[in-house]
Amino acid sequence: MDRNQSLGYLVAHLNVELQNALDQRLKRYQLDIKLWPVLFSLWEEEGVSQTVLSKRCDVAHYTMTRLLDQLQSQGLIIRHQEADNRRTFQIFLTDIAKALEHDLIREAERVNEHFLSELAEEEREVLVSILNRINRF
Fold it and tell me: What is the residue extent of each domain of the chain?
């Protein structure tokens, strides 16, 4: 099979390119691409546990711990210990992180626009629909 016919190769290659492009934009805010899924997920819903966040971001629990440590040291999240379970923390965004949401989402939209610029609007919608079906979202 030719690599240009391999779904795995094509998706992996596109993923690397998308992440590199977004990472360059995030660096302007002293952030890196590893933190993006966590912030994005918390903008959708904060107050979730680290376990829930790990599943949503598809990363191991210990990896999420390091990411949350980094976000906390940058003043972007706070952890609240749950009253009924001292081992569980709810994760909340700080005002600083909330203020970054609009700008960082816009940066991601610019990256998307760059990569989708060769497609007509209908093709974009079809592509996203197909990817969602494949990923079962």
Answer: 3-108
Q: What is the pTM of this model?
A: 0.85
CATH dotted code for 3-108? 1.10.10.10
pLDDT of residue 5: 84
**Cβ count near 26 (within 10 Å):** 22
Mean pLDDT of 41-54: 95
Q: What is the secondary structure of 34-71 as a DSSP string?
A: GGHHHHHHHHH--SEEHHHHHHHHT--HHHHHHHHHHH
Please count the residues of the chain: 137
Whether 76 contacts 94, CB under 8 Å: yes
Other C-beta atoms lying within 10 Å of the C-beta of residue 17? 13
